[in-house]
Amino acid sequence: MKKLMAGILALSMILAMTACGETGDPTKTGSAAGGSTEAPSASVPASSETPEPSSEPGSEPAGADGEQEGLLKVFLDRNYKYDESGTLSYDFVVLDEKEAASFSALAASLESLNEETEATALEEMKGIAELTGYKSLGFYIYVLRADRNLLSLRLESTFVHDSETENKGVFAATFDTKSGKQIYPDDLITDFDKFDGVVKSKLDALSVQYSDQDLEYAEYFFGYEGVWVKLPDDEHTMVSVAYGEADVFDKRVAGAPEDWISNIGTVTGGFADVNGDGTEERIYTVSEKMDEWAEKTTVYAGDASYEIEYDGYDRNLYLVKNKGNYYVWYSTNTDNDWPNLCILDPLASGSILMGTYGLDEAEIELSDESSRELLLLDPAALVLESRTDALSTYRVANEFFVDGDGLVSIRDDIWNGRSLNALKLLTDLTVDTVDAEGNVTGTAVLKKDSYVGLCRTDYVFFYENQPEAESYWVDVLPVKEEDVEFLGDEDFTMQRLRESLDFDEADTFWRVRFEYEDWTRMINGMAEDEVFTGGMYAG
Predict the structure, then answer these.
(1) Whole-number Å distance between alpha carbons of 299 and 7
(2) Across residues 244-270, what is the average pLDDT?
(3) Cβ neighbours of residue 283 under 8 Å, at least 6 residues apart?
(4) What does 165-211 look like in DSSP terms, one character per residue?
(5) Exposure string (b/e) for 138-165, b if CB count within 10 Å is 16 or more?
(6) 536: helix, coil or strand?
(7) Does the pLDDT value for residue 76 go beyond 70?
(8) How far apart are CA 44 and CA 28, in angstroms?
(9) pLDDT tens-digit profile of 474-520?
């Protein structure tokens, strides 16, 4: 039986060994360490106790314009804990509300997985609290595949002590989307002897030393077009078996949409025929520190490689398939939280980038210790994020799609914002009124001493295709003074909304137009600081 220990419990064992000072290789799975190949009963609830989802794959109604049927809409909740002993990070996987209703059993399994993740993360943080020096502990999740058949996750644990030593474990977790069951390699591979023969031939071709026990405790990552096999105790060695390469797979591995995006992770990476020569190439990254903040990352895609130097964090490597072609994306948040998405050209020999966009996954702030990220999974409906300085500095998001050249194209010029800044009127201000689609419907007067919140704009600071214009606009909505909190002291006070504006159902907005004059924003012929107070800007 090729059933492996549940990923979260394996992470717990690894970090427990680290906290106790054990020096063994941290990538060994719990099943390998314990000698058992059976799945423990404490992973996620058996689907026999969970109701079946209310719909069959492909039966869900079509989504928004451009959205591709067959792919799930998935969020990643990033949770953070900080104290004097160190930093703890852990991820949750959450289905979109409509997806959760259609696939209720899967939603229940993911909720249990998230609860187990949080409990394990908090317990392990306690376990290493007695170690000296600053510590960073992380439980991260990457979504390799999310469609109407399978949800395939890559789980990663990291432990950094004094910013010097990093121990890492990498694990697979796969769910049957309809039943919600967590499933294992022998649920999807029907003939392991034949399958192992294919894997061994590929390892032999790489001149890799391995044993039968290595294959027994390997990790199996089920993607859209094949399964990727990673040996234990080896962070880098991995081979791919395409679903059409061997007649040993359950029917659930087939039927994936033609176009998709896979968040394959940076070090372990994945496989695709990115150069079109008929064979798959390995895609992964290698990073090295240049100084305290900066890193140089080399992205490898077969024989091609690309060096990217940056000050950054939250790095992600994506494999994209669109209209029969494969692309490699690399994203990171750089200096001053400027998000950057690099679209690499696997066929280029000298040029590093096809295009560089100041965009990243659109995050929705939940609290000081949590944020929600809509994952990049559908090439036809991408929500990407940028930064604006439209009467304050804040993040804005828009919908894009992958075009025929593998670049991303924008759908319209309305960027939705997530600012918590509240602006106070210092004077009466005449503005246009506009509807939800951005059409001007009339005029109105914003009264002196009233407050507004920032909603939408056509101006972004960090998008290379931002058109130059004589003026720009930002749409605002009125807010009550009791919904504003004042932080700081008499020398410096911030006006903040107590809760983020929910303007999805608004049918009328107030449009404030502004233009630049020697770096000063001018509104109706007046300088910004003569019209509003409360705007906050980052460098």
Answers:
(1) 27
(2) 89
(3) 264, 269, 270, 271, 272, 274, 299, 300, 301, 302, 317, 319, 328
(4) EEEEEEEEEEEETTT--EE-HHHHBS-HHHHHHHHHHHHHHTT----
(5) bbbbbbbbbbbbbbbbbbbbbbbbeeee
(6) coil
(7) yes
(8) 21
(9) 999 999 999 999 988 777 788 999 988 888 889 999 999 999 887 78
